[in-house]
DNA sequence: CTGAAAGCGCTTACAG
DNA sequence: CTGAAAGCGCTTACAG
């Protein structure tokens, strides 16, 4: 072993007892007299005994290692996730093996296989659109969104969307552009659904899908936000802080001051959100709690599992759980340039297409419209 | 084992040979006749044999696992690093265990200890200021900067700084503010050193340390960049894209167009750099190569190492290596508002403090000054 | 070229 | 309450 410490037998010899007794004392399983157990524990601590995971793994079939599968490790959320999972796992006595798949589905399958070949006791998977988590053969906890079929631990993305929308609504925004990347993402759809549901008839909400736009206009193309402002949009609710950043800089570049002329909000409270000017209003997930729940479920499933029955058909899973998101209000959101508080007039407004105006006019603003 | 596949003996039985022969055939070590070896390999593949790492680890003292130590996992560079290391490691047959320490030195020591307790064969450490990598007791590869004493693999940060400076110099900038976080960072100092050295007497270069500023003005305080522009600075060379982002938005917010009125550059090509408006000019590390070198060095050291001699006093390490950085020119940098090409007049200019001007005046611009 | 034997460090029934 | 024995799956000298 590449280890320095003493082994179990060393402690046994030192104390003149059997290895079995030492093992029992340390694990608290077999019956060992209180005083002997205490003596053993003391000696073990003194000698700096650390059990060999390899020996234990070979015997018990448990490696005390969890796999963390990130289909797209470039995801800026990764640091948050990895940190939270690592903390939860190590607190529970587990190590975390990372597996990346650079967005590629085939690579991902390979990555999961490698993890299995390494005998992880379970894995945490953060899926991206199209991820198939079939017969993995070990307990799996999926971190995604509650709307995903199957057992998952997730932030309440829908609720997060509602919070963002309520915030914007209270500020007086009546024309908001929601910016998402891809409609195939459950997370994004939940967030957007929450936003729309909270606005209800109180605002005209339009959605811009970046990926669709980029397919035509090219990667990194302008989002055309200045035009949107000209059309009367006063708020840009982005499904991720990365998009919010893109929106913010595009607006600023066009000479549109945020938040005076337009508000921008994001999601996830990514690293740059507090340092950007103006700082981004966002909704953050409670990663610590999500990770804790995921790992706890995993540990439980691992404990209940018979190490013998591996292989296909034994995908144990985490219980469903939903963790509230937290709204973080910063400077990027404020009341719209022309504050309009006439929510009563909304119900029967029925224009289908938003009127083009250079700036949100005081009285003719097309508020209260809703998307078809 | 939490495994599905067949074990070695299963293959041996199937073929009517001994386990030893199977092992030898598969590893190519002991002498086994070519045809039997082939038959064994075929059967192993057919049966989907995957060796038990636990069994092997117990016997050989090698776990085939590398530890990845990130003193500050929140580091936005983390995804790049983790991805590159994971790829290099898995290509070499190693798994990657992550260890986080949330910026805390004590936690870090704990994290490294946990890794050792898990018998990693080696580790990759990305240190942050003040990290002590002492007698870890296993091969270690440090990813930092060549100026760090000890064996490291690193990007040529100094060279990267030079590239940034040459770029800015060629554009015509003669008054640049370098923005760093903390002078205790070797990486930052190298980058800054490279910048200064490339500018030489060709420009007046001043340094702004964010951390020092924030200690007085508070976390997230304005950097006062508009004032700097008023003082005649036309370029802001940031030591990280995170700072560049902060600079960019602060300038934009102040109504200073980038790059027309001021250029901004960063480092590391972080995820948002290409999508921001204007996209950030930056210098990126070749993480793939750095990771490859680090892992290769580790694997070599592990191979040469006697599994028996563990413990204190055996910190093998990676050979020193330096990987060039690559300049990525995007829209955030351009010629300064008033192009001034009079490098000849520079040598004997000697004002100590820059003259305060509202805008870089055509002829009186305090170019060619150098810091004391 | 091939196989029998031992043993890596641990835990788990099973006796005593 | 304590210990002797067996065995997890592999690899490595060592015989043959």
CATH topology of the largest domain in chain A: Rossmann fold
Described by the principal axes of the CA atoms, the overall outline of chain A is: elongated
Strand content of chain A: 5-15%
Largest two-chain interface: A-B, 71 and 71 residues
**Tally of alpha and pi helices of chain A:** 12
CATH architecture of the largest domain in chain A: 3-Layer(aba) Sandwich
Structural class of chain A: alpha/beta
CATH class of the largest domain in chain A: Alpha Beta
Instruction: Give the distance, in angstroms, between the N- and C-terminal Cα atoms of chain A.
Output: 67 Å
Low-confidence stretches of chain A: 310-316, 340-372
Q: Radius of gyration of chain A, rounded?
A: 27 Å
Average pLDDT across residues of chain A? Answer: 84
Count of DSSP strands of chain A? 12
Q: Helical amount among residues of chain A, as a percent range?
A: 25-40%
How do the helices and strands follow one another from N- to C-terminus of chain A? HHHHEHEHEEEHEHEHHEHEEHEE
The total domain count of chain A is 3
